[in-house]
From TrEMBL:
Domain BURP positions: 171-387
Protein name: BURP domain-containing protein
Signal sequence annotation: 1-19
Highest taxon in the source lineage: Eukaryota
Biased composition (Gly residues): 101-111
Span list, region Disordered: 98-131
Classification via SMART domains: BURP
Organism annotation: Brassica carinata (Ethiopian mustard)
Length: 387
């Protein structure tokens, strides 16, 4: 009893804290006056999450966790209350409960239900409570050959990318952003997986290895075969995160929503900040001709912004960079099939530090620093700005 009571007090207190630190609640706490774009909200409900439900309840009696297929048949219930830790596991499910306070464990309670790669993990420790229901295996990679990221400006474009990358069509000149202008566009270029890759909670994302020196460990973590196209895609993303900055650019690879919020707020402040994304009325809309609507273009911000580009990786990871001398626009578009889009465009006034062979210069046939270069944001990308 002398050991159990302090443990239960710790559980009740840290779970109350953890309830306030879910990614969505973290956003609301840090940015109470800033709506979350749908592009980010959708990354909490994707194919990366198992269809089985997981419920966590925190009350005066302690912590109650239930994971199963709807009703209490075949699920696992974990109850932590005044009586200690009680586990009720359904038929055919393996459950491991560990209560530790020694060195190397961080202290607290860890519960693992089901087989690795297809299970629910519940951890209670000094950092709070983490509940994560794993996908059956992992997101399925569809074999998109990795290419240079057109939204990083120190890379040269290949001829293949110039002709085959659908993002090439997203670049245009600021002078062409007028009502009636038509462009062939696609806003949902495939990110390499058959479904949306989801955010990991920051506490979990920080435990996942990341970096070139840990690449073998990363491949092992995600069960990716060395030398495969998926491995090359992941390697490219890591290299881009580690690449040198362009000019005075400040950049950061955010592995969680919380870290994206922190970086953006650190550059723009938390007061009067907005985050917006392109919105298309139809999911998986094909490449087609769009015309800038008569309602016209609206300038949202001038001078500086933080743009976060979703990367090709097994979980949601964003390459964010603070861009100076930029203008953010909202551009209403009408597709030739009647489809409407609320596009977000970013115009860079100074491109003199970009690679002279960057994709934008090849597409637009202009030289670095000569004219403002603009690009629409794909649906999964986000731009932050002050207003």
């Amino acid at each position: 009893m002398a050991i159990r009571l302090p443990l239960i007090c710790l559980l009740v207190s840290v779970t109350a804290i953890a309830a306030d630190l879910t990614p969505e609640r973290y956003w609301n706490s840090a940015l109470p006056n800033t709506p979350m774009p749908n592009s980010l909200r959708h990354l909490f409900t994707s194919d990366f999450t198992d269809e089985k439900s997981t419920n966590v309840q925190v009350g005066k009696g302690g912590v109650n966790v239930y994971t199963g297929k709807g009703k209490h048949g075949g699920g696992t219930a974990v109850n932590v209350g005044k009586g200690g830790v009680h586990v009720d596991t359904g038929k055919g499910k393996g459950t491991h409960v560990s209560v530790s306070g020694g060195k190397g464990h961080g202290g607290g309670v860890g519960v693992h239900t089901g087989k690795p790669g297809k299970r629910t993990d519940v951890g209670v420790g000094k950092g709070g409570v983490t509940v994560h229901t794993r996908h059956k295996g992992k997101p399925v990679y569809v074999g998109v050959k990795p290419g240079k990221n057109p939204f990083q400006y120190n890379y040269a474009a290949s001829e293949t990318q110039l002709h085959d990358d659908p993002n090439a069509a997203l670049f245009f000149l600021e002078k062409d952003m007028v009502p009636g202008k038509a462009m062939n566009l696609r806003f949902n270029a495939e990110d390499g997986y058959d479904g949306k890759t989801a955010f990991l909670p920051r506490g979990e994302a920080e435990t996942v290895p990341f970096g070139s020196e840990k690449f073998s460990e990363i491949l092992n973590t995600f069960s990716v075969k060395p030398g495969s196209e998926e491995a090359e895609m992941m390697k490219r993303t890591i290299e881009e995160c580690e690449a040198k900055r362009v000019g005075g650019e400040e950049k950061y690879c955010a592995t969680s929503l919380e870290s994206m919020v922190d970086f953006s707020v650190s550059k723009l402040g938390k007061d009067h900040v907005r985050a917006v994304s392109t919105e298309v009325a139809e999911k998986n809309a094909p490449m087609q001709k769009y015309t800038i609507a008569a309602a016209g273009v609206k300038k949202l911000s001038d001078d500086k912004s933080v743009v976060c580009h979703k990367q090709k990786y097994p979980f949601a990871l964003f390459y964010c960079h603070k861009a100076m001398m930029t203008t953010v626009y909202a551009v209403p578009l009408e597709g030739e099939n009647g489809l409407r889009a609320k596009a977000v465009a970013v115009c860079h006034k100074n491109t003199s530090a970009w690679n002279p062979n960057h994709l934008a210069f090849k597409v637009l046939k202009v030289k670095p620093g000569s004219v403002p270069v603009c690009h629409f944001l794909p649906e999964t990308h986000v731009v932050w700005f002050s207003y």
